[in-house]
């Protein structure tokens, strides 16, 4: 299935979306796509078939977000903890990822038409070389697109993300680019994998599990959280719209919390800004080393 789908909603569903758009729409929605394996067990199929169904639902959900006017979407696709599963399942997931990235790269015209910017957040060094190359090519090709932003957490945990951010801060101090007094939460935020993204307004987790599984733990301190018992492959547009309606009901309370906090500029001084620019260039060069671009 294509990553970018044509509209498949009926007139009544589109009407519901139109009504919800009269209220506040979250700019950034994150998803913990849980329940693929239970869906497979429930339907007597192999686990990898459940994950394939999960990707189909991912593509469908991305289309709903576009229809609703959500500017940025983040999906938790593969945790570092997933490497601990049986090797057969891990290999199946990595093969599925390879197929899907190849499919996306085969749809460059469509990706450009819709202005889809794809960012993979995670420890890419843990992945096989062929998948690293596909990811690098995808990110390099779409980096200047700016209509819809899609983040995929792959080989990701928050603990790993924060650990790498702290290492980058230490490196900056040791190199003399920043001073110890420059270290604050905004500097650390800008060293995270998600430094280009606003924090999620809404986080949706399926399957009935009420936990975060080490996903965006730094970023979701003021995020509206919506849990649903529906397994991810069975998640439908009405489940999605229920989550949006829940967010709209909570919006005034979320705003009150935000107003109580001191709003600080992202970066406090030129040393911080210069170092973050240097760090971003370093990361871009690392991508280009994986996949030298002729674009």
Descriptive account of the structure:
The structure is a single chain. This protein is of the alpha/beta class. It is built from ten helices and six strands; from the N terminus they run αβααβααβαβααββαα. It has a six-stranded parallel beta sheet with strand order 3-4-2-1-5-6, with helices on both faces. α2 (36-42) crosses α3 (47-68) and α7 (158-174) packs across α8. The longest helix has 24 residues, at 237-260. The chain is globular and about 60 Å long.
Care to give the gist of this entry?
This protein is α/β, with parallel strands linked by helices and 295 residues long. It is 50% helix and 12% strand.
Spell out the key features of this protein.
295 residues, alpha/beta, six-stranded parallel β-sheet, 10 helices, 6 strands, 12% strand
Helices, strands, pairings?
Blueprint: H1 11-20, E1 28-32, H2 36-42, H3 47-68, E2 72-79, H4 87-105, H5 108-114, E3 116-121, H6 129-142, E4 148-156, H7 158-174, H8 185-191, E5 202-205, E6 224-227, H9 237-260, H10 270-290
Helix pairs in contact: 1-9, 2-3, 3-4, 4-6, 6-10, 7-8
Helical percentage: 40-55%
Estimate the global geometry from the Cα principal axes: globular
Average pLDDT confidence is: 92
Largest sheet: 6 strands, parallel
